[in-house]
Amino acid sequence: MTVLVLVRQWGAAWGIVAYVLWWINTAMAVVVVMGIPYVFVKIQSPGVKAVLPGVLLPLISALTSAAGGGVICQYGALGSRLQVPVIIVSFLEVGLGLTLAITLTDIFMTRLFDQSFPAMEEIYQDMILCGPFGQASFALQALGQAVLRDAFADYDRGTFLTAEAAKPIGFASELAGLLVWGYGTFWWCFAILSISHALISRARHRQHTSFTLAAWSLVFPWGVYTNAAVELGKLMDSPAFKVWSTALLIIVLVIWIVNHYFTVKGLVTGDLLGLNRVYESAPITVNRGRSGPRTNWV
To answer: Which membrane topology describes this protein (predicted)?
Structure first.
């Protein structure tokens, strides 16, 4: 938002501010991507049967940083000497986060094939599965456009960072973004089917489904998947992608509003904080005159 709004309104100095903040964010993202998977594997290994889509969240930090790098290079009013290191590091982050995301989704699929299904309270996390691929798709598209905007041509070093290499690299990056979005579409559809099947099954057996904060797992992955679709619509000037991305945007807005409503309601009633269970188990003291007070537990 800094480069999209402040650079245009208040000048190129804000592009430098965003540039510095991006490097700080990138350093933290790389530490997270390197450290948390190591903890999962070596220190607190949950086992394949306990792997949830939430294990993908650390990887999304690197992909989000890469997407931010592409946006900064396009709209930050930076010179090629500043843009090229950001582009290269962003591509490295995509390679780091995307390949690990594919690996972990394969592990989760192995768990499902073993008929070890997540609990109903965790079913909304299935939408997280499309998150890394939506974000990676947007990052690859943004980086491809940054490469095509003469950053490599102005830098002109070696055989890779040249004007001759810019067009094939840029178009290949945009094509990769389209391919990755297709893979993300599978997981988006899988999550829709999985969540719908679970909710319909509980309704058929007349089982109550209560709202939990896990429902917020729908918003961010859906949002980045939509953002990638918006970008594809711009790149190809495609009415199909424009209509589809608009429909996705409207639906995620409805989900966001509904989640806000039930979250506020749950906080007011105490359901989300577990206060209703505290009230139910709280002791009640009844005064019985000379025989003394008696404590009843509700």
So the answer is: Multi-pass membrane protein
The whole model's pTM is what?
0.86
Task: Return d(Cα 67, Cα 141) in angstroms, integer.
Answer: 9
DSSP state letter for 214:
G
Greatest Cα pair distance, the chain, in angstroms, is: 98
Mean model confidence pLDDT for the chain? 85
Q: What is the pLDDT of residues 74-130, one digit of tens each?
A: 888 888 888 899 999 999 999 999 999 999 999 888 888 887 777 777 788 899 999
C-alpha to C-alpha distances, 231 to 142, 181, 198, 234, nearest whole angstrom: 8, 11, 32, 5
**pLDDT greater than 80 at residue 165:** yes
CA dist., res. 73 & res. 23, Å (int): 13
Q: Is the pLDDT of residue 220 over 90?
A: yes
* Residue linked to tokens 């996390």: 125
Band of residue 39 on the pLDDT scale cut at 50, 70, 90: confident
Are the C-beta atoms of residues 14 and 7 closer than 8 Å to each other?
A: yes
286 strand-pairing partners: 294
Q: CB count, 10 Å around CB of 121?
A: 12
Q: Calculate the alpha carbon distances from 188 to 13, 152, 198, 265 in Å.
A: 39, 35, 16, 28
Alpha carbon 263 to its chain centroid, in Å, reads 20
Contact call for residues 225 and 191 (beta carbons, < 8 A): no
Give CA–CA dist 54/125, Å, rounded: 7
* Separation between Cα atoms, residue 90 and residue 70, nearest integer Å: 7
Nearest-angstrom CA–CA distance, 85 and 200 = 50
User: What letters, b where the CB count within 10 A reaches 16 and e where it falls short, cover 51-80?
Assistant: bbbebbbbbbbbbbbbbbbbbbbbbbbbeb
- Bigger pLDDT: 52 or 30? 30
CA distance 35 to 27: 12
